Amino acid sequence: xxxxxxxxxxxxxxxxxxxxxxxxxxxxxxxxxxxxxxxxxxxxxxxxxxxxxxxxxxxxxxxxxxxxxxxxxxxxxxxxxxxxxxxxxxxxxxxxxxxxxxxxxxxxxxxxxxxxxxxxxxxxxxxxxxxxxxxxxxxxxxxxxxxxxxxxxxxxxxxxxxxxxxxxxxxxxxxxxxxxxxxxxxxxxxxxxxxxxxxxxxxxxxxxxxxxxxxxxxxxxxxxxxxxxxxxx
Length: 233
Description:
Elements: H1 8-14, E1 21-26, H2 32-39, E2 43-50, H3 53-65, E3 72-76, E4 91-97, H4 99-108, E5 118-123, H5 127-136, E6 139-149, E7 152-161, H6 170-175, H7 177-182, H8 185-208, H9 212-232
Helix pairs in contact: 4-5, 8-9
């Protein structure tokens, strides 16, 4: 993978960047995504944000190597604190983190979201936490996709500000309102696998013998299995 050829996962993330956007890539690692976006004219300007020194140095070297220092700024900082008002960022990308962490980054950086028109988010786990954050903060889901790469399954969510109050059902929050409409093969594979994991956890708890808390966990997982069964019918 490099600035010319991204992984399938990041290429799909990049496909949701509208041409000539001003983007912030949070947790940019080697800055491949912002370099690719600028080279492909998906972005006219980018901030590559990193909190760890190793990846920060890699990002700086990548931007230097590709000759994009005029269009990409690499900054050290925690989450959205790397964004400055003069950047005029309209699109934020956060990819490759857990859903709870992505939601936390957005929550802590809410003051940086003014003027942002699009969030492109790729959680490795617990995408429902991002959907829940979106409902609370008036961001509607405008696109969702699910894909498989190297035996791992990834969901990508696109959120945009909404003036209207939003409501999603429990099923929509867990499985994704747009993914539910398609229910493609990868979606079915993911949730069959999740069912198997939940069933194994239940069996382990039952084998150990359970107190009240463990029985509550069994009830919670049983309800999730039933939800998945209903969805996959």
